[in-house]
Amino acid sequence: MSSVNTAIQLSVRGASKESTCGTDLAKGPWEFDLSAALEGVPSYGPGASLADQAPSSTPQQIQIPQQYKDASEQELDERILAAKATLGDRVVILGHFYQRDEVIKYADFVGDSFQLANAAKSKPEAEAIVFCGVHFMAETADMLSGPEQAVILPNLAAGCSMADMADIESVEACWAQLEEIYGDMTATDAEGKVPVIPVTYMNSSAALKGFCGEHGGIVCTSSNAKTVLEWAFQRGQRVLFFPDQHLGRNTAKAMGVPLEQMPMWSPRKPWGGTSLETLQDARVILWHGFCSVHRRFSVAQIDQARAEYPGVRVIVHPECPMPVVDAADESGSTDYIVKAIQAAPAGTTFAIGTEINLVNRLAEEYPQHTIFCLDPVICPCSTMYRIHPGYLAWVLESLVQKTVVNQIRVPENVAVPARVALERMLAAKP
Ligand code: 13P
Ligand code: SF4
User: Fold this and answer.
1) Using CA atoms, how far apart are residues 8 and 185, in angstroms rounded to an integer?
2) How far is Cα 330 from Cα 340, in angstroms, rounded to an integer?
3) What are phi and psi of 63, to 5 degrees?
4) Whose CA is nearest to atom 8 of ligand 1?
5) Which of 37, 244, 265, 319 has the most crowded CB, counting CB atoms within 10 A?
6) Does the annotation list 369 as a binding residue?
7) How far apart are CA 304 and CA 317, in angstroms?
8) By alpha-carbon position, which residue is closest to atom 3 of ligand 1?
9) pLDDT for 17-65, tens place per residue?
10) Of all atoms in ligand 1, which is nearest to the CA of residue 221?
11) Measured distance CA(268)–CA(280) in Å, rounded
């Protein structure tokens, strides 16, 4: 099977019948970064996140030397391998499951965001951690790795559009309004519970993790969201969950929280666009955020998969909308999906609702099964896709020259409370 990049190139050249959500994805990321800059609108480039505007605080990637843009795939391959060999144990390369094949092949560890955060801790001897994922993952790695270690994101424009849907100013403004309704946020009721516990998904800026650390809150990932919500309900009357409404809704619904007690908070609207009465009665206040990749999955796609493959096992990520999770057989994190496929008897057919690079890789690694993506359109996480091998060669060769480029550094005043929220998550037990 060809890589996602090859499939996109073929589709754009008209050499295959497959279609892609963004023809610009076939270009080098330096080309679409440049066109966005020329238009003066910060954007996430082509693909799934096309409609999402990047906030002005999103780091801007500088133009890298022309030689990296002009180099052939083979030349980049040789240069990356040579730089890696020269650096040896001085560098560790981490790759997220959604990373493209042309880059993931150089990774020393491949995993989900939680596993990679742990991997960052496990190599204290490496002076540099090159994170082939997105910005919030690199921030987390920086907070959990040693103070002397440099965490590098090869393309600074590899953000996460969902993470950017909740910024610290909007969350603080929301908190201030909630304080007007619920009163002193540190006062406990007869059961010893405070009015609201803030819970942030791992897919959020370090500033939001810090906010949670400072306000009695916690971080969750898609693999421990239920455990974390239980932790929060032991300590609070309700939860403010950001930025992913879908993960929050799907998890709380499975725990028995009625939908009418899960209002949505739209930032920049008075009372978040909801009413005082609804907020009084709320159990989970959901932030109006979503993932552009997972939002594409639909019940119609599931119906079609079931019609074409009777007995198909449908597994979707909990970032998918609730009707999709309800129509699937199972939902779970990327790690859950990988383990479910590993454990299945040979000959199982899977329709998967998550990012295409992971789905295609699983199809290749487990030829004893039939595995396909529910979305017929080739639509990668377009921000992670910005980590082109040219950027990887540039950061590694810079390290060989003893120069650290694209370092992700979380200031200590943010990192200290953010680590509190992360450590609460690590200590929370099911
Ligand atoms: P994981 O936490 O499973 O790595 O997922 C990250 C992500 O961005 C999902 O869209
Ligand atoms: Fe963010 Fe969605 Fe990409 Fe995950 S898949 S990193 S949530 S944009």
Assistant:
1) 50
2) 10
3) -65, 130
4) 203
5) 244
6) no
7) 18
8) 334
9) 999 988 888 888 887 666 555 566 656 655 445 455 666 666 777 789 9
10) 2
11) 20
